[in-house]
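If it is no trouble, can you show me the amino acids of a protein and the tokens describing how it folds?
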Amino acid sequence: MVFRLLHRTKNWRHTVILNVLVFTVILLTCLIAEVNPVSAQQTEIAILMPSTASGIPEGDVSYARTVSRRFAQMLRSIGFTADELQESSVANNPRLKDNSSKPYRLIILPLNSKISISTVPILNSFVARGGKLFVTYNLADEVASLMGLKSIKWLKAETPGQFSSIRLDAPDILGLPTNVKQSSWNITAVESTTPQTKIIGHWYNSNGESTGYPAFFLGENGIFFSHVFLSDDIQTKTQLLAALLGHLIPEFQHAIAKREIDMITSIGHIKNLDALTKFISFSELTEAKEDLQSGKTLSIQAQSEYAKKNYHTAMTAARDSRNALSKAYALSHLSDETEGRALWNHSGLGAYPGDWERSAKELANAGINIILPNMAWAGLAHYDSSVLPKSNKYAEYGDQISQCVNAAHNNGIQVHVWKITWNLEGAPKEFVEKMRKEGRTQVSAEGNPINWLCPSNPENVKLELNAITEIVQNYKVDGIHLDYIRYPGSHACYCTECRDRFILASKLKIQEWPTDVLPRVGKHSSAYTDWRVEQITRLVRLIHKRVRGIRPKVKISAAVFGGYPSCVTSIGQDWIAWAKAGYIDFVCPMNYTEDDTYFTDLLENQLALMPKDVAIYPGIGATSSNSLLKADAVIGQIHLARFLGASGWAIFDYSSNISNTILPAIQIGVGRLKSTPPH
């Protein structure tokens, strides 16, 4: 796979002696690893999931799963796996018993506001025999006593950007970064109850001023973080996690150092040094070759220090090596002028709220030519809308479409307004209640209300059309980008109006509603699936007709599920049919994954199905819930998209984090046109 993706070009040369040295040291290191294996350390971590049985709300339990997944992703990136334990089963877990031959060394509590009575003695015993805890956000009283802490209060950010970064100060923790960016909206204020538990990090605001609130505590029994790890600045956070775990459990440093060395030459779509050398040599850039040489030298140093068991020094050299090689890799890409280079912006405010001009200049400098700003939901608008309730963002920062369009067009960037359909998230409570009272919201198969507008309701269709119409009429946008243009899942919608409209359209006799139409089990499930698909397709068809009638050159696109045709049945989203009917101009499948093979498989299937006159810009999840990608991994997936013949790409999600981590790497390579110098 790697070699068929290399540039096709003339003969190449590389430093034979250096490569021999690299592979010799790698071989020696592997022999040492045989004698001193680290595999046993890789399963010594458990994540203790909260339970509704302990009185924790289902919503918090659900969010804890998200936090747990992110924790697991971060752990994997530094060489560890973690067992996910349900609280109801910990009493019977042999690895939590005092006589266990392979006990856990670390337990992570991702969002455990309460601990069951039966779990308390298990945690007490675990800590008593030397086990460590890593606790985030919630601090149950029983856990607080083990950590030498006391919870004071839950604190919501009083001003935007109040909790924007963390500055760390603990010189004895090797490899600890001094500053980590994280935009948190609230924290748990905590204080120490024992001199042994010390503050090692404080929260700072967006102006670089200390808030006075602690972010991290380190005690004899573990670590407490006053929020949860979010996806921003993930590379620095991963380094932070590695430093903290290596300090808590020194034996872990071996595994972390080995992982850092193993990952040195896994850059973008390339997985070994020889292939990386060939790829970079084809660029013929002096700077790229210099960075390549520097990376190789540092790699030898890392291997040598690891062999001498100087793990911290080995880690540092390995990171420096990978950074140099990543830069060389980034420099070795160029862009095609006709390519669509897009970024989603979920906030609708750009990367710098109140300053779209700054965002637009930054994007243009990085070679981005399309911005997809989220300006409207089903019940909320960040612009001067007469159709939807105006948001707090509009009240604070003004008309975001107007500001975005002016700034983007001044910098040669197209604006395709991201419109979320059906989903009422963020809508004013009174608006949602009004919709529900009028019978316009969805209902689950169990009869529970869902805060999404029902697609079969004509008034809801009219609302969506009118919202899009006013955008196209009042602003010089280049396109309308549809999202959530689907049902929330196979569990909806089964409201009484859906029943009546389905019976009227299908002429079928329904004896048991919704049993007769439920997926896979209902005798009329296939007919109901087709009917649901038509409800979604109808809106796309009407949007196409309405927009083309107002401004024919405005493009229509959609963010869609990558797995096709499974999305047709599960969420009623038949985007291939939309493309074949000519309703959309391009599509952005959300191919969010860290697995390049899966990304490639998805895109190959999509390109094979898509009509040739409809463009595909595969979505790359730099900071999505399904993937957390470093800059080189983002560039690697862009390379794969280009190789397979996609017309462009779209990255989720433009923010100050992406500005600091992804855009600089794009600017020197994939966003740079072939006619422009690298700097």
Observations:
- The chain has a mean pLDDT of 92.
